[in-house]
Amino acid sequence: MKQVLLFVMIAFIGLHGSVFGRDLFKHRKNLGKESMPVSIGIGFITDFFDTLGIGAFAPTTLLVKVTKQLDDDRKLPGTLNVSHAMSCLLEALIFITVVNVEPLTLFLLVASATAGSWLGSKFVTGLPEKKVQFVMGCALIVTAVLMALKQSGMINILGEGNVATGLTGIKLMIGIVGNFALGALMTMGVGLYAPCMAMVYMLGLSPLVAFPIMSASCAALMPVASINFIKTGEYARKLSFGITIGGIIGVIIAAKFVTGLDITVLTWIVIVVIIYTGFTYLQKSHRAVAAQEV
């Protein structure tokens, strides 16, 4: 199963690289006016922290706006997908290779997230986004608090020392259903990383196991989405190229950092990421409610 996923990730790298590369070569005389050093810097920063589980889209949007690297907001969705597809695939390839995770668990959870995103693109987007963001925000913060209490030794509600690398029985079914739902919610803009971290921990798996699961889940989606943006030209070529270069470097460095951490330190990092993402969802929900009241 793990070999199948590795083959799929490598195939997607080849697919994305060829489609992206051909488009860059075709427009090599007019790639854009963006700054290559700034673009590379944005890619390094955002994908370094993306590898830690924070996510790349929101930080990239912020940095692109602050540095004024994009003059047409209509190209932002395409730029985000195209520029981060390769780094996300690389994340998945590294974590699948170096992290000890039970192959069947990994395969089934990644497959369920992919199926969920397909269904979500058709049906889930009709749900009230602000309510979903509010519920997800509250759930993540509560989970993070429980994790922190457990790590500090105050409670053992989450079980003793999560070291499992695979799921079986009812826990496996919960994981499949949970990742299916997270894949569907991605189509509404609800990031998969932090909720996946929380779910994996609550099911008793080692926090490190979340990294191949969440990265491979997203890596199976982004290359396909980016193809249409490339074909229609709805993305910033030079900016995306720079972010891709910086992102690859950021992923390699961050992956070594993550996999070399003591599991206790890693768990605290996961807790911080989950809290950060939870408050981000609550903030988005609050802004959506405020906009409706105006």
Automatic annotation (TrEMBL):
Annotated GO CC locations: plasma membrane
TM annotation in the entry: 85-112, 132-149, 170-194, 200-227, 239-259, 265-282
Alphabetized UniProt keyword annotations: Cell membrane, Membrane, Transmembrane, Transmembrane helix
Membrane-protein topology: Multi-pass membrane protein
Coiled-coil boundaries: none
Location relative to the cell: Cell membrane; Membrane
Family: Belongs to the 4-toluene sulfonate uptake permease (TSUP) (TC 2.A.102) family.
Name of the protein in question: Probable membrane transporter protein
Organism: Enterococcus florum
